[in-house]
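Hi support team,

I've been running sequence recovery on a batch of backbones for a student project. Most finish fine, but this one hangs at about 90% for roughly twenty minutes before it completes. I'm not sure whether the input is malformed or the queue is just slow. I've pasted the structure tokens below so you can try to reproduce it. Let me know if you need the job ID as well.

Thanks,
M.K.
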């Protein structure tokens, strides 16, 4: 049996959870191993000038905002050594598409692998796509909201992955957002889309 998902109820508790999940460098900086490809070409602008532009080519990504039946967001804390000033991040489940996958399938798979959560298809809403760094990364990031998620399985992490799973109320999440704890751009954008869709933000 899987353990119940623990709740984060204060920023002080979140600080402790993040500190317990820090990544520490264990080698010198080395050359990459080919996961990302750098490409480039010349572009002609409306004024007639030509400019060389380079970008990173990588697989499309999907981020999923899971909401449990009680209205809590389910999030993951992962260690990260990049950027150097952030040792761990709290974020929504996300990942890259495998060959032949569409964006929704990617999101469902990543959510199940990272959290053990699943939701019926009619409760999964497409919230569109965005570009996290338009001048550098070519492929978009797709966003889905998964409502009424239930944890039927233990997380099935990839080799080398380390993830801690937590749930946060909407009010707690707003404290995290306003307090600068949401440092992952995809999580930030996805949360704004989800909160508008759920009528928790208005304009």
């Amino acid at each position: 049996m899987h353990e119940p998902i623990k709740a984060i109820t204060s920023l002080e508790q979140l600080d402790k959870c993040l500190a317990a999940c820090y990544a520490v460098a264990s080698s010198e900086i080395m050359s990459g191993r080919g996961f990302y490809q750098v490409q480039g070409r010349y572009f002609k602008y409306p004024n007639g000038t030509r400019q060389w532009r380079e970008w990173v080519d990588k697989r499309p990504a999907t981020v999923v905002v899971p909401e449990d039946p009680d209205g809590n967001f389910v999030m993951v804390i992962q260690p990260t050594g990049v950027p150097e000033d952030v040792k761990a991040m709290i974020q929504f489940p996300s990942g890259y598409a495998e060959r032949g996958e569409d964006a929704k399938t990617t999101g469902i798979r990543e959510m199940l692998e990272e959290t053990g959560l699943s939701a019926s298809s009619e409760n999964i809403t497409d919230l569109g796509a965005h570009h996290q760094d338009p001048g550098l990364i070519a492929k978009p990031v797709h966003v889905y909201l998964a409502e009424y998620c239930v944890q039927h399985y233990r997380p099935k992490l990839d080799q080398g992955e380390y993830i801690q799973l937590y749930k946060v109320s909407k009010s707690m999440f707003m404290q995290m957002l306003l307090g600068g704890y949401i440092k992952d751009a995809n999580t930030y954008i996805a949360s704004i889309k989800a909160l508008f869709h759920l009528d928790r933000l208005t304009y």
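--
Follow-up from support: It reproduced on our side and the slowdown came from queue contention, not your input. Residues 11 and 173 are 10 Å apart (CA to CA). No action needed from you.
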